[in-house]
Amino acid sequence: MVHNNLSNELFGVEELAQAMGMSRGHLYRRVRGITGCSPNTVLNVIRLYYGKELLNCDNFTIAEVAYKVGFNSNTYFIKCFSDHFGISPGKYKQQQAGQQVAVESLARETPAFVQAFRTIISSFENRNLQKETPDNLPTPATRFFGREKEIDAILEILSSRKLVSAIGVGGTGKTRVAIEAGRKVKHLFQLHS
Predict the structure, then answer these.
(1) How many CB atoms lie under 10 A from the CB of residue 101?
(2) In three state form, how does the secondary structure of the chain look?
(3) Separation CA 145–CA 167 (nearest Å)
(4) pLDDT in single tens digits along all 193 residues of the chain
(5) Where are the CATH 1.10.10.60 domain residues in the chain?
(6) What is the distance between the alpha carbons of residues 155 and 176, in angstroms, rounded to a whole number?
(7) CA distance 161 to 74
(8) pLDDT at 184
(9) Of the residues 49, 90, 92, 185, which has the maximum number of CB atoms within 10 A of its CB?
């Protein structure tokens, strides 16, 4: 999941929580309890380790690596990389090219909390694959006598990949209609990992 969204700078804790079928707060507590770090810190460290691997290739510049691992700023990537590994990406790249730059911090293996985070992610991915479809909508669907035309109109719009906004006064069943429409078209919007 993280790997598939690595270059997406907008992929963060909110998107990860949604993909895993839990609230942001619940994800935060689970990840913090297991790794001792926030999910955002873990995501950044994972991106930095992927960046470190890409720097080993001669094909990519530092700016390209920063973009490929989801940093929208080359400067921010350099700062984070330097802070975490104790060496700039440029010096690290030189070292990998055979230059002698002695930095003992680069000998560290992937941190235990990153390994633990990967375990969490895979357990949720496996859990979601075992389900036929995720069914975490807030209320059960009910019969909608007299509202079939509304639901059909919403389905037609959603099927064409357009956004639908249900507006009106409270208590008219907008949420229930939206949930029913969502249930009927969810097969069109499955997450692929």
Answers:
(1) 15
(2) CCHHHCCCCCCCHHHHHHHCCCCHHHHHHHHHHHHCCCHHHHHHHHHHHHHHHHHCCCCCCHHHHHHHCCCCCHHHHHHHHHHHHCCCHHHHHHHHCCCCCCCHHHHCCCCHHHHHHHHHHHHHHHHHHHCCCCCCCCCCCCCCCCCHHHHHHHHHHHHCCCCCCCCCCCCCCHHHHHHHHHHHHHHHHCCCC
(3) 20
(4) 666 666 667 777 888 888 888 888 888 888 888 888 888 888 888 888 888 888 887 678 899 999 888 888 889 999 999 998 899 999 988 887 764 444 444 434 555 656 666 666 665 555 544 444 445 555 444 555 567 778 888 888 888 877 777 777 777 777 777 777 877 877 777 665 5
(5) 3-130
(6) 14
(7) 34
(8) 80
(9) 92
86 backbone φψ class: left, alpha, beta (φ>0; ψ -120 to 50): left
Q: Whats the size of the chain, residue-wise? A: 193
Pick the CATH number of 3-130 from 2.40.50.1070, 3.40.30.10, 3.40.50.2000, 1.10.10.60: 1.10.10.60
CB 45, CB 114: distance < 8 Å: yes
**Are 9 and 74 within 8 A, CB to CB?**
no
Sole residue written with tokens 């389900």 = 131
Fill in the amino acid letter for 85.
F
C-alpha 176, offset from chain centre: 28
